[in-house]
Each structure stands twice: as C-alpha cells, then as structure tokens.
Input
Amino acid sequence: MSKQNIVYNDISSASEGKVMTYREAIAQTMRQALHDNPKVILIGQGVDDHKGIFGTTTGLINEFGAERVIDTPLAEEGVTGIALGASLNGLYPIMTHIRADFILPAMNQIVNLVAKYKYMFGGLFEVPMLIRVVIGRSWGQGAQHSQSLQSLFAHIPGLVVIMPSSSQSVLEAYPYITGRYRGPVISFEHRLMYDLKFNVGMERVGKQPMTSHRIREGKDITIVATSIMVMEALRAANHLSRVSDIDCEIIDLHCASHPDKALILQSIAKTGRLLVADTSWKAYGVCSEICRLICEHSPSILNAPVTTLGMQPAPCPTAKSLEDMFYPNLRDLTDAIATLVKSKNNHGVPLPDEKSMADVYKKFKGPF
Amino acid sequence: MAPADINILFYNSLRIRMFEERIIELYPSDKIQSPVHLSIGQEAVAVGICRPLKITDWVFCTYRSHAYYLAKGGDMRTMMAELYGKATGCCHGKAGSMHLASPEVGLMGSSAVVASTIPHAVGAALAAKILNKDQIIVAVFGDGAIDEGVYHESLNFASLHSLPVIFVCENNGWASYSHFKTRQSYNICDHALAYRVPATHIAEGYDFNKVCDIFSEIVTQVRQKRSPAFVEITTFRYMEHVGTGNDYANNIRDHAELTKWQSKDPLINDKTRIAACRAKIGREIDEAVAFAEKSPWPGRDQLLSDVI
Output
C-alpha cells in the first residue's frame, strides 16, 4: 500500500534500512545527553546497577562517574525535590522510575512544585528536567506495576507529558527535551516496546517533537492512539487493508498534555469517524479529553458516535486469564474499527486470530 | 561583632516588624488579598541567618517568608506590590504573600506546602557541588516541617552526598494549633545527629546578635568543609498561624509565655534605638505602600503567560 510508505515507517518495513530497538534508542539518547552537556545528570533508583533501567543506562556510570549517574535512596518525593533544586542551580536532571506507579510518592513535588515553579513566581524561574517513567504490562504486573498515569499529569498546567510510541519517537523527542527545552517533561515509556525493533532515520521535519503526528493516511476513520496502542492501531490498519476496503488514518497523539488539536480536527473532518485507543482507563483520561476537543470545537464533523478503547475500569488483575481480558487486544481493536466504519456489529470483516499482546510482542522480531 | 553591625541587625529586625505591623493595619481594607503568615516575634532569626550569607548564597523558604525576603535584601517596594497583587510585584502578582522570591538576592522560592522546599535546597547544594560553585544553600522551615517524610529524605541525602546545605529550623513550637509535644517523639537536634549532620541549638531566638554570631561560625564551617549542618533556633510566634490575629483571645496559648518572651525582645524593649530608627523605616514603608497603591493590576495577557 503506497499510502503506508509515505508515512512514519516505524515498524512497517524493518527489514530495510536502519533498525533500532526502543531500548537502544533510549540508551543512545541517555548517553548522548550526558556526553553533550556536562550539566546533565542521571538520577534515580538503580541507574547505576547492572540492569540499568532495563538496559537504558547500563554502563553510563563507568563512562560518566557516580557524580553524574546517581543512584538514590528510596525517596521519590525527596529526590524529585532535589532534582528541582539542582535544575534551578544549573544542572539538567534526568530522573527515572522503572514503573510509572512509583512516581506517585512524588506527586507533591511534581504537582505542587515542579509544575508551578515557573508560573507561581511570575516567570522568575525555569526548572528544566526530564522524568522518565515506564508503563508495565503482562507477566503479572498486577495492580501496582501496570498503571498508565498520563492523564493525572496531563491534567496539571505546567507539565508536558509525552508517550513515545517508537524508537524514532524517542530519538526525536529526547535530544530536543534534554538539549533545548526549558521546562519539566514527563515521558511515559512502555515496557513491552523495549525489545521491539523499529525503523529509524526517517526524521519528521517541520515540527517540534512534542506534539502529535499523523503516521498513516486513510479516508474512512481516524484512530487517535497513544504509546503501544499506536502499534496496535498500525497492525489493525494493515490487517484491514488486506482483508477489507477499510482505510484507516492513524494519529500518534504522543504529547498527551499538548496534542496537535488542529491535526486531529482536520483528520476527523476528513474521515467523519473517531476511535481513541489509549493505554489507560477511559474515564477522565485521553479518551475523554479527545472527545472534549471534538465536542467543544466542531461536533458536527462526526458522522458516527465515537468509540474508545482502554483498560477495563478496574485495577489491573494479575492472573493471565483476567489480564488478557483487562486490555483490549488486536481483535477487539479491529472489530471496533470495522463496527464503526461499517456502522453495524455484523460487519462481516474477518478479524485477526489474536493472542494477548504480551505473547505477540515477546516473540516479535518485526517487520509486521 | 562590630557595633556598626549590631545596629544593622537591629535596624533590619525592626524594619521587618514595622513592615508586618503595617500589613496588620492595611489588612482590614482588603487591599492585601492573600493569606499572610506573619513573622512578628521571629524577625531576629531571619536577620541573624541572612547577615553572614553572601548574595550568591541561596535561601529556600516557607509561606512565612516576609522576614527572609527583607533580610536577604529583597526590594520592599516590589514585595508590597506583590502582597497587593500588582503587576509590579516581585512575582508580577502571581505569588502573593506565600510565594515570595527574589533570585537577584538569592531568595529562591517559598512554598505553602510544609517542608516542600527543603529538598530544593539539597538539590541546589548538589548542583553547587557538581558544578564547583562556592555557594552555600540554606533551607528554612518550621518545627512542623520536621514531621514530614521529605525532611528526613532530604537530611539523609545531604549527609550521604556531603552537600553544602544548612538546615535551619525555626522552632516556635506550633504547627498551626498543634503543639510539638503532640507531634514529635524525639529531640530535633538528636535526630539530626542520627543522620551524622552536626546540630546546634540556639535558645535565644530573640537575640539577633547571638543568632548571627553562631550562624556565622556554622557558615564558615560549611563553606570550608562542604558538608551539611543543622541549626534549631527556638523562637516565638506572637501572632496566630495565619492572619493578623493572635492565639490568646481563645486561650489556645498561654499569654504569660508571650509576656515572658516579649520581656526579652529588643524590638519592644530597646526604646532608644527604636526611636532612632522608626522615622526612617516608616518613610520607606510609606513609599512601598504608595508604590503598591499606584501600580497596575496584571491583565489578561498575564493570565496564561509563563505556564510552561
């Protein structure tokens, strides 16, 4: 499909050109940031150990020393405040949390201080920093190792929240954030993508990297997706292009706090249909927010009700049988797209025979 | 200590008291629409702490920071304008009383969430160490802040990394209306020592000379050793936690204790010096009020500026 080739080719043809795993992309940007700017520090629990935040910081202590690659006590609030103070005094901190859930003890610092340090003092201060957190999924991550908390932070003025959906997304966003951007950014990485290979090197020009991107052009439906759901949307779109005439347009929301609203509205004005696929719960989150955007600006561009996909409205269960039902899978997503486009449940479009995403991605070598 | 310095300490302390007394006068007019946490009774601590610091040394404060703003050298006119919520305020009207800052003199922020700026001081000290700056960072907080977990996290990190930060606890014994005996199972200085942070207690929080002398020694030590220190200064909050009233009408606190402390307060008892300084300070405050009165309000263009 020629339309797929003109768009952001994160996973569509990984056998050609340069490929890089999500982990390698993050590791490269971490090393580059420390190398390029002596004021960058890496601070977080385990940044210096042999596992190195799933291999994204491994070895950096040997190259840059313990003064700049700082293992911390188990003190999320204190360390976040320390990062703020360090930032005020000239350092650029990159903080890490190996699970997004672990950022919650730091909510006071992030919401009350980091987000407000510029505005509350009338612009006297800037606190540039990058806080990396990892969304967990599969293999019994359970209720407290699996949360996808982007909407909690995107809700707060003063914070920028991004959700890199590929290696290329990391390679574009992180150097920009650590090298040029002067405010606090929280990045939600996804654990399941760490081992996946993506095509890299096709840089998107003309846009700063903290916004949304259209990654597939189509005419029948707009899918706004976040993080790993972008890949799922691509897989669903590719399947549908093989087995049906359904032509999907996909927007990688990427910046949950500051999406490209015009891009989303233009796309829906063209397709008339919207499906939002988020990694988190639907209520009061990305799904709700995109719906607000449409409702406030131009609800008449919709030809059908919106469909949203996200986690079930419960804490994440540990048992695999339940976990597989807790997250929407490729079959659910494909079915939802076909139902929306065909305006009926018995749409007759063949659905992919889907195991859980975790099973697929563990074995995934790409290309799709 | 040179006599000239003693006069400056007295003058600066009285200046803070008179400034806050003017706030009390103005408050019923609603011209200052911001919760004020007055330092009356605690001025000598702020003055004694800030006097030995260089302008490049940083102080992080709390919502009770009028005294530190002035003691560190912040501009009185832009402070009054900030209390009025005017565009000419030190933070353009977005801060009010509880979030004063003046980076040009090293007052790097004040927070209304108890203990929340303590780790900022530690982080700034970490940067001072890594970037090789000849700089001392001071975290100012009350005894209530010591109840918070982040205080402990901060003390530990500062000690672990040997950072040039001084923790200053203004112990007035009260967290709002909760007495420290209902809150703390330990002695504050002993507790700091448990983190291997040298701790000093100053009982005479009304005595700006003593506070300044002892704190000067500590500053010299920290500047040389590049490692943290802790100071607890017993002081007395004359007013209620927030607002311009007091805690005695409702018998929340014992009035006899106030009288006892006030009998030692030079800002009440040194009538000769007070008389010598009052007129000049009064004129400065008049000018600050006039500046605030005539300054414009921030407009719509300011509402969404400096968010990210």
The two ends of chain B are 47 Å apart (CA to CA). Residues 3-295 of chain B form a domain with the Rossmann fold fold (CATH 3.40.50.970). The longest strand of chain B covers residues 165-171.
